[in-house]
Design a protein that fits this description.
six-stranded antiparallel sheet; 3 helices; transmembrane; signal; DUF4352 domain-containing protein; Immunoprotect_excell_Ig-like; five-stranded mixed sheet; alpha+beta; transmembrane helix
């Protein structure tokens, strides 16, 4: 008995579905964060007192925005526009932070200056200063009226300035600033430093005017008088300088103005000739 031979059948293999690549998830977080922080930073910068917050958020938004743009260029993110907006807002927040810091610090500085000015007004106070050891008067000279010879001005830091009466003298033939026919006068200016800090005399200026018209009296440069103060005056010490001024022969008065420095008001003495 013969077996029935079956024809060869091809071997079948299992069928698998074609491989599908998983879609890449967009990494948009940094761009979105940059936009949010940039908006908050820019709004904070509109309030000068919040300049510090605007500056911090602006820097972070700038960094995140630039990083988000880099991801978008590499195809890792899809919100390039949002990242760019966050970057721009970060820069704006930083600019507002700088402006706010300047405004705040300037306002504080102005307020401190106003407080200091109200506490220690540099307007001079008048004393009866013919004797430097005499009691100091707290009264200020009347507005528009100069001091008399020998009077002293005591400033709020206890710096005292006094001017003596004018005394005639004869300049040498080599003196500068003296005009023939005019009279030469010596005036002694004394600075007493009773403050706690040394006083720099390099900024002290002394000027004079003569006559009823207030014509400038030229300073005489001669070996009998000095050009001005030099060096510093230590606390508790004093310095004296004799100035020479030239005035017309018919002048009846010599007005001397002394300004210790830019931090002090100038004071005037009306000296009878």
């Amino acid at each position: 008995m013969s077996q029935t031979q079956q024809p060869n059948q091809p071997q079948q293999h299992p069928q698998y579905p074609p491989f599908q690549q998983q879609p890449r998830v967009a990494r948009n977080g940094l761009g979105t964060a940059a936009l949010i922080l940039g908006v908050i930073g820019a709004l904070s910068g509109l309030i000068p007192l919040l300049f510090w917050l605007a500056g911090i958020l602006g820097v972070i938004a700038l960094i995140l925005g630039l990083t988000g743009r880099g991801r978008a260029k590499r195809g890792e993110a899809t919100n390039k526009g949002i990242a760019l907006t966050g970057t721009i807002l970060g820069l704006a927040a930083m600019g507002l932070a700088i402006f706010g810091a300047y405004t705040t610090f300037k306002a504080v500085d102005d307020a401190v200056d106003e407080i200091n000015k109200s506490v220690s007004d540099t307007k001079a106070k008048s004393t009866s200063g013919k004797d430097s050891g005499a009691d100091k008067s707290e009264d200020k000279p009347a507005d528009g009226k100069p001091l008399a010879a020998g009077d002293s001005i005591v400033y709020d830091d206890d710096l005292t300035v006094s001017v003596s009466n004018a005394v005639t003298f004869s300049p040498s033939e080599y003196a500068a600033g003296h005009k023939n026919g005019n009279h030469a006068y010596k005036v002694t200016v004394t600075v007493i430093n009773d403050s706690k800090e040394k006083f720099d005399t390099s900024l002290l200026t002394t000027n004079a005017r003569s006559g009823k018209d207030g014509v400038k009296a030229e300073q005489i440069i001669d070996d009998k008088v000095a050009m001005g103060f030099e060096g510093t005056v230590l606390p508790g010490k004093k310095a004296t300088v004799v100035y020479g001024f030239d005035a017309p022969a018919d002048a009846k008065n010599l007005t001397v103005e002394v300004t210790p420095s830019f931090d002090y008001d100038g004071s005037q003495w009306d000296l009878k000739l």
